[in-house]
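Deliverable D4.2, example record:
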Amino acid sequence: MNRTSILTAIEREKAIAVLRLPDPDLFFPVAEALYKGGVMVLELTMTTPNAVDLIKEASQSFPEEMIIGVGSVMDSKTAVAAIRAGAEFVVSPVIKPDVIAQTVLQSKVMMAGAFTPTEIDYARQLGSDIVKVFPANITGMEFFKAVLAPMPDLKLMPTGGVTLTNGAEWIRAGACAVGVGSALVSAEDLKNRDYKAIEKKARLLMSGLKG
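Output generated by the structure prediction step:
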């Protein structure tokens, strides 16, 4: 997929499942549960063991409509490795100019993390397609409305503070999509291998976002 089609798909789906897994063996069962529940965009963080290998395998075996990206990227070498493995987008918790530059060069979607209006605008200027506002539970929805008032062309995505039932509120506040982590895939569900619970949560999230 090219940069434009990836970005269009993310905005259409409205949700990215952020997967920070303690065991790589959990990835495919969790991904399947999310898919059954209607979540089509997954961000696998680099804190997950063997993340790049998992992305490569996923890119070859996932249904065509699923999109896999990489998260918690802190250097350009990691970004390039993940993209070559099949990652369609790259997420960093902070602004890393080298990561942004390499991702743009590879024609993939970049999401840099920022917190203040100045950081958000700087990330956008460097080439971040979507700016990940993190931690969004501290900024809140009113922050999104305030930032977008003078800069309505920004594409913002909250991570942190997004629940299974408030996603639509974030979209109404101006977010182009939401990043959902532990509210969707909890440590307890992972410990219990409760994939049905994950599927149920995915359905609840997506029903609120897409009706």
